[in-house]
Amino acid sequence: MDRPLETRELMQFLAVADELHFGRAAARLGIAQPALSRTVQKLERRLGVVLLERSSRAVALTSAGQVLAGEARRALEAVNAAARRTRRASADDPHLVLAMKAGGDAGLLPAILTACEREPCSLPVRVVFQIDRVGLLHDGQADAALLYSPADDLRGLDTEPLLTAPLMAVLPPAHPLAARASLRTADLHNENVHPRHGPATGPEPGNLTELLQLVALGHKVALVPRFVTNSLREDLACVPVTDAEPVTLLLGWPAHSTSLAVAALARAVGAARPHGGAAAAP
Amino acid sequence: MDRPLETRELMQFLAVADELHFGRAAARLGIAQPALSRTVQKLERRLGVVLLERSSRAVALTSAGQVLAGEARRALEAVNAAARRTRRASADDPHLVLAMKAGGDAGLLPAILTACEREPCSLPVRVVFQIDRVGLLHDGQADAALLYSPADDLRGLDTEPLLTAPLMAVLPPAHPLAARASLRTADLHNENVHPRHGPATGPEPGNLTELLQLVALGHKVALVPRFVTNSLREDLACVPVTDAEPVTLLLGWPAHSTSLAVAALARAVGAARPHGGAAAAP
DNA sequence: CGTGATCGATAACCTGGCGGCATGGACCGT
DNA sequence: ACGGTCCATGCCGCCAGGTTATCGATCACG
């Protein structure tokens, strides 16, 4: 009665936790509903814990069920990451995968890559452009990523800072705030700012070009770190936001990584850091 | 062919990876050897990766196998932690478990606990004394722990610093170095220092009292942060080690924790911090 | 150089767990 | 009252995963 939980059980429980409906969850899993009911019951007996409050009309998570839902998601992520990393480790074409947003390297990527080649134990680096870089790290599809603090969730990652820069507001030139020398967060209170916390309003840009297009149209105001604005279109105004926390660009990789090649890449980031010195801590 | 790995498969593979011997691994798992052979083969076919190099006389891990061994250990730890945390979350006696070394709180624990009671969403705290506090956090047996940087491996944890103090060498009064006003790491080169990296020499003390006994006998020299020496026995000398990195005492908890009670405890640590200000970053 | 020991792989068989279908029973809306 | 929805239960078939027996390769040894 003390043998470990199986991933199959966790997956089935998670499906129910997501749907809060055995029938739909079973359909999503491609199995019949009775099998699902019994698996969850067995899981509850095994744990000695009630995970779901069911009536014939509704299903709800107990507090223990909420805990398991979160933990199970992490655990399954770890299992899938194990499979992906193992497959990648056995590729006949050994390499590292570095995830980044297009244009999010502050122009430092070439310097990093050449520095990396010089490091011992380095491997060729393959760059993939992706929004959800943290997700790629956690599920084992990428070995390292260029991230931003405080925008990205760095928990569970090791990091090496690259550079820190203030946050800038990007505005159409005709905007009343565009002439200001500096702004405060409160000045943008009524603007359609991107990125925004909370529900999205209107179209969400998928990349920087789309975002700048929306800014030029006056539909949005963009908040980006200064190292992005260096290569900006000429027809937009940039104003620093003085009371916003500055943004740190950094290399992140999964904590507990034992890859020598990742360590080499991290050293390369340290070497490619502008001014050679240590950047401010995130 | 793309369904996730099962924990049973990972456990069996790990047993082989540990023993490098199918017979012994099978015995450890309480199953017969052929079943184990087949499970590992199936795992290899599923991943499309050779994990083990077997001859009829020896078994060795391939590099991919080494990767999977490490990843599988983490993944299984996460699965077991999920079960433990779920069981603990459903206890009819809700509480937090705080792991620490005896005497390792710098005398601040009472202040932390009273501050915690005042926080919203706090829970009663149960303290357990344990050496391997990081392990307890990772396998879900503890919710938070008092840790030391850089001694403990903080990867995968969130932390809240408590205080920072220099490292002190504890010596018997008759020791030739005991009269010095300060030491450097090199001065202790020939001493039997504790804690020591590398193989243990002689008896390893299990707690502070045992360690100090060995110091008094002249069998060891102890290196401890200054906040420990405040409550030291009178018959021992303490000398600061000037070129050693200072030690930060901090509260650590699993990254990705969503527990409001853990957050309350972290806020309490911030409130109980001496001088009220921010401690130096770890 | 034969012989026995060791150890992983294979073959043949058996069992229990898991999933399928049909149905029961609680609850709600009309 | 009745039909609809939804989770639980009973029963059945199948295969994943276990067992024992055995093979084949390799090495130590007299």
Short description:
Chain A is of the alpha/beta class and 282 residues long.
Could you characterize the architecture of this molecule?
The structure is a homodimer. By secondary structure, chain A is α/β, with parallel strands linked by helices. Chain A has 3 domains: about 5-80, Winged helix-like DNA-binding domain superfamily/Winged helix DNA-binding domain (Arc Repressor Mutant, subunit A, Orthogonal Bundle); about 90-165 and about 245-270, Periplasmic binding protein-like II (D-Maltodextrin-Binding Protein, domain 2, 3-Layer(aba) Sandwich); about 165-240, 3-Layer(aba) Sandwich (D-Maltodextrin-Binding Protein, domain 2), CATH 3.40.190.10. Chain A contains 9 helices and 11 strands. Chain A has a 5-stranded mixed sheet. In chain A, strands 8-9-7-10 form a 4-stranded mixed sheet. A two-stranded antiparallel ribbon of chain A has the order 1-2. In chain A, α2 crosses α3 (about 35-45). The longest helix of chain A is centred in the first third of the chain and has 27 residues, at about 65-90. Chain A starts with 6 loop residues before the first helix and ends in a 10-residue tail after the last helix. The relative contact order of chain A is 0.14. The model of chain A has no long low-confidence stretch (mean pLDDT about 90). Chain A binds a DNA duplex (30 and 30 nucleotides) through α3.
List keywords for this structure.
homodimer, alpha/beta, 9 helices, 282 residues, D-Maltodextrin-Binding Protein, domain 2, 37% helix, five-stranded mixed beta sheet, 3 domains, Arc Repressor Mutant, subunit A, 11 strands, DNA-binding, four-stranded mixed beta sheet
